[in-house]
Amino acid sequence: MGEHEGWVVQQPPSGLLPNGLLPNEAASVIRVLDSERWMKAEERTAELIACIQPNAPSEGRRIAVADYVQRLISKCFPCQVFTFGSVPLKTYLPDGDIDLTAFSKNQSLKDTWAHQVRDMLENEEKNENAEFRVKEVQYIQAEVKIIKCLVENIVVDISFNQLGGLCTLCFLEEVDRLIDLNHLFKRSIILIKAWCYYESRILGAHHGLISTYALETLVLYIFHVFNKSFSGPLEVLYRFLEFFSKFDWENFCVSLWGPVPISSLPDITAEPPRKDGGELLLSKYFLDACSSRYAACQENQGQPFVSKHFNVIDPLRINNNLGRSVSKGSLHL
User: Fold this and answer.
1) Which residue, 116, 135, 161, sits at the end of a domain?
2) CA distance linking residue 296 with residue 91, whole number of Å
3) Mapping DSSP to helix (H, G, I), strand (E, B) and coil, where does residue 70 land?
4) Last residue of a domain, one of 161, 195, 226
5) 3-state SS string over 157-168?
């Protein structure tokens, strides 16, 4: 973060002692900030967030596009189509996409749905009287098959029977209500996503970068360890950068239960998030209850956790590495 003169107060650090950091790096992570200066900076940051956060026109536009694509998909086969991700969570950036997933009881569609939806969208692309402009239709045969297209210059990603996305949405909404403070969690996600996307260029799973869900989990980890003791989203960003730039990525995975030694894998045995035994934001009961409540999304539970260059354990599915998309060359944190 560079020089901090004037922004920190010269007094002993708080009793907080995070776990999983590189040796002798805790002091910078837990330094006490000058509250008066930071509150002024938070006021300016609030003005910035107001410029990039969802607003009524952008929400209306995305709702209309989502409804349009939902109707097109429903013409292909009997199904229900839901939005998930940053649009219903209301944490999308101005350039944010729309995530849709179609559900059908007809399991035989899992092999044909993508071709049907792609054909429908390509026909709509040629339709001069279409309700919205559709272009750049792509079929991406990744781990999760996706149809990607542009509708009114908004990226739309379509998947099939992806219950996990809806479970994640419910979990993050539940966390936001728990933290409260005028949606501090969501406002912090917007600011940190903006920094990661526009400033550092480290957000984007399709490009070997960090996925949005991995980033949201890292932001939640900061709230969890510091127990929402923030003056505002700017301080969350500051703590985020200080903490994860000092985190020992070579030896630990990030988990809401605490840092997990990579040497212990495939056994997921977490160390305490804090060495000082201080109170955490999320209780073990809360985390276990969420894992149980959203167990419907926990496919492939028998598979072991596979470590990569950047390891973040899914709070709802502990064998799922949210950092698996990050290549070694793009690991900048």
Assistant:
1) 161
2) 24
3) helix
4) 161
5) EEEECCHHHHHH
pLDDT digits (tens, 9 = 90+) for 147-197: 999 999 999 999 999 999 999 999 999 999 999 999 999 999 999 999 999
At residue 83 the predicted structure's pLDDT band, cuts being 50, 70 and 90, is very high
> How far apart (Å, rounded) are the C-alpha atoms in residues 35 and 7?
8
Residues 193/215, Cβ–Cβ less than 8 Å: yes
47, part of any domain: no
Q: Above 90 in pLDDT, residue 273?
A: yes
Three-state secondary-structure class, residue 8: strand
The amino acid at 292: S
Q: Which residues contact 274 (CB under 8 A, 6 or more apart)?
A: 16, 17, 18, 19, 225, 280
Does 114 fall in a domain? yes
Phi, psi of 28 (to 5 degrees): -70, -30
For residue 233, what is the domain's CATH number? 1.10.1410
Nearest Cα to 143, choosing from 328, 321, 331? 321
Q: Give the tens place of pLDDT for each residue, 102-128.
A: 999 998 898 899 999 999 999 999 999
Structural domain for 114, as ranges: 56-161
In a domain, 112, yes or no: yes
Helix axes 35-52 and 233-246, enclosed angle (nearest 10)? 100
Contact between 72 and 134 (Cβ < 8 Å)? no
CA dihedral defined by 120, 125, 126, 127, rounded to 10 degrees? Answer: 80
